[in-house]
Amino acid sequence: MATKLPEAPRVGMVSLGCPKNLVDSERILTKLRSDGYAMSPDYAGADVVLVNTCGFLDSAKEESLEAIGEAIAENGRVIVTGCMGKEAETIRARFPNVLAVTGAHQYEEVVGAVHEAAPMPPSPFVNLVPDAGLKLTPRHYSYLKISEGCNHRCAFCIIPALRGDLVSRRPDAILREAEKLVEAGTKELLVISQDTSAYGVDIRKEPRLWKGRDVIPHMTDLARELGRIAPWVRLHYVYPYPHVDQVIPLMAEGLILPYLDIPFQHASPSVLRSMKRPANEAKVLERLKKWREIAPDLTIRSTFVVGFPGETEADFQYLLDWLDEAQLDRVGAFRFEPVEGAAANTLPGAVPEEVKEERYARIMAKTAAISAAKLQARIGRTLEVIIDEVGEEGGATGRSQADAPEIDGEVFLRDAGHLGQGDIVRVEIEDADEHDLYGVPLA
Ligand code: SF4
């Protein structure tokens, strides 16, 4: 018996303006086609009509408005995109019934608006790609990218040159992706970007409706909503701007994991200045103390660069002393390497390789000792652990809330053969070394 496929919604497209707009229209249609949508050559057969507008000249704007009017009269279900997206108010004033207005190059938004206006019926024959997308990570944890690019210009980094300034994803699109990932089995969301604490600075005035609530594009609001969706939410690449104080109570409430990955890179004020690091302020140690008072189990992970041009022995010693005070839980260190195109390469005071090596060994020894002491203090405690792998001889490997996959430590379990990947269990910690813990799951 032949299998009857569900009928795909049909999308009509009116593309106005220059060849760049035409390429945008093609890109939107390619994505919709790969999502399973069918195309309609006329208004009558379309479930929704996209009008890709041009706003280059007044005459082009008038032509765009006329095209929107025609699509509304002929079909009624219209999404507007393209250059005139900047004038959403004018469009809405004249055509209050348009379903959505998105701007030029906002592919994710316009495709999202089509999905909302004419949802694809689920079918395993059409939807070859799972709703949550294709993943390279195991099913139980997923990286969630919330923005692209970066507004800073750190002297050792070429990311802004490669990826441009920060562009935030709209919060409802992020939350929809998070929900799909969780439906597909994700237990732990790892929030990533170049600068998570700057999320939303470019779209702050554009709250989006999600589950009947307006969500402001801001790290705190997004973290709170993500905490309602996934059992574990972990924040990476956070800079210690003052507003980061607001996410600590969410950790105390158990909404997100008490974990912050803050790439400090150095502590000496003069090195931080020549690195041009963001949120480089003197009171960080005090803030860490306050954060730990609110969320005593807060784990702070960081990375540091040693041997940056101009780093003196006094700067390096300042960093070691700072680490003694800061008592960071997890630390990675790198020897400075000139990356082609980075501003730091022309700075005076290159540090000889053997000095970099020696400083690297010293910082690793210091941070390993701090880590070992912190892990020793966990012996005898009961911790929540997510299971990454179950072995054949009754053992399993997992991670506590203090451990991000790949970069932090692990928890090795005995008598855990009954557990499955992705289970979150309570574990009594029996032993520890420099980086890892050992324990047994509680019944
Ligand atoms: S190091 Fe990070 S914050 Fe600095 S410019 Fe590069 S991406 Fe931006």
UniProtKB/TrEMBL annotation:
Positions that bind [4Fe-4S] cluster 1: C18, C54, C83
Recorded catalytic reaction(s): these are: L-aspartate(89)-[ribosomal protein uS12]-hydrogen + (sulfur carrier)-SH + AH2 + 2 S-adenosyl-L-methionine = 3-methylsulfanyl-L-aspartate(89)-[ribosomal protein uS12]-hydrogen + (sulfur carrier)-H + 5'-deoxyadenosine + L-methionine + A + S-adenosyl-L-homocysteine + 2 H(+)
Domain of life per record: Bacteria
Q: Where, subcellularly, is it found?
A: Cytoplasm
Asked if the Swiss-Prot or TrEMBL record annotates the protein with the keyword ATP-binding, the reply is no
The Gene Ontology biological process annotation of the record reads: tRNA modification
Cofactor annotation comment:
Binds 2 [4Fe-4S] clusters. One cluster is coordinated with 3 cysteines and an exchangeable S-adenosyl-L-methionine.
Cofactors named for this entry = [4Fe-4S] cluster
Q: Name one GO molecular function term.
A: metal ion binding
- Domain Radical SAM core per the UniProt entry, residue ranges: 136-373
Name the positions where [4Fe-4S] cluster 2 binds: C150, C154, C157
Give the EC number(s) under which this enzyme is classified: 2.8.4.4
Cellular component, GO annotation? cytosol; ribosome
Q: What are the UniProt keywords, alphabetically?
A: 4Fe-4S, Cytoplasm, Iron, Iron-sulfur, Metal-binding, Ribonucleoprotein, Ribosomal protein, S-adenosyl-L-methionine, Transferase
What residues does the TRAM domain cover? Answer: 376-443
Q: Which Pfam families match?
A: Radical_SAM, TRAM_2, UPF0004
Which residue range or ranges hold the MTTase N-terminal domain?
Answer: 9-119
For this protein, the record's PANTHER family field holds: RIBOSOMAL PROTEIN S12 METHYLTHIOTRANSFERASE RIMO (PTHR43837), RIBOSOMAL PROTEIN US12 METHYLTHIOTRANSFERASE RIMO (PTHR43837:SF1)
Q: What does this protein do?
A: Catalyzes the methylthiolation of an aspartic acid residue of ribosomal protein uS12.
Q: Spell out the family assignment given in the record's similarity comment.
A: Belongs to the methylthiotransferase family. RimO subfamily.
Q: What is this protein called?
A: Ribosomal protein uS12 methylthiotransferase RimO
Q: Which organism is it from?
A: Sphingomonas leidyi
Name the gene that codes for it: rimO
